[in-house]
C-alpha cells in the first residue's frame, strides 16, 4: 500500500497572471536547494483520516495560519515514487513572510547522537505558475496544469 498525503494549493490572481503559495522544505537536506526544493503544503494521512481534513490541518501546521479560503477545487491525485498525493486548490491571500511552520526532530549531523529541530517549511513565497514549475518537486508539477485548466 503506497503512502498517501494530502495538500492545498492556494492561488491568487494578479495583473501578471496566477500566483501560487509554495513552501521551501526545511532541514539540512534542502537548505541549499532551490530548484526542486519547494512543495505544496501537505502531509501524510494516518489510518482512518480523511484526505481533505489532513490537507486543511497540514496547511495550518506548515504555514502557521488556517487556509483563508472556503471554496475548494479538487485537483485529483498524483502517484510518484511509491506515494500518492491528493491536492485541492483554493483562491485566497496570505502573508507569505508571516508564515511560521511546525518543526520536526532529526539526528544531525548523521550518527552524531545530536537531535535538532528543523521547520517543515523554512519559508513560503508567492510565485507565478511558471516560476513554480522550476521550484516545485517534480512529482507535484501536474497540479499546476490542473489548476490552470480548472481556472
Overview of the molecule:
The structure is a single chain. By secondary structure, the protein is α+β, with helices and mostly antiparallel strands. Helices cover 19% and strands 41% of the residues. It has helices spanning 51-63, 129-135, 142-150; strands spanning 3-14, 17-25, 38-39, 42-44, 72-80, 83-91, 103-107, 115-119, 121-128. Strands 1, 2, 3, 4, 5, 6 and 9 form a seven-stranded mixed beta sheet that branches. Strand 5 and strand 6 form a beta hairpin. It starts with a strand and ends with a helix.
Q: What distinguishing features does this structure have?
A:
single chain; 151 residues; alpha+beta; 19% helix
Q: Any low-confidence stretches, pLDDT <50, length ≥5?
A: none
Radius of gyration: 15 Å
Reading the helices and strands in chain order gives EEEEHEEEEEHH
How many H/I helices?
3
- Biggest β-sheet description: 7 strands, mixed
> What is the number of beta strands?
9
Q: Structural class of the helix and strand makeup?
A: alpha+beta
Query: How does the overall form come out from the CA principal axes?
Result: globular
Layout: helices, strands, pairs:
Elements: E1 3-14, E2 17-25, E3 38-39, E4 42-44, H1 51-63, E5 72-80, E6 83-91, E7 103-107, E8 115-119, E9 121-128, H2 129-135, H3 142-150
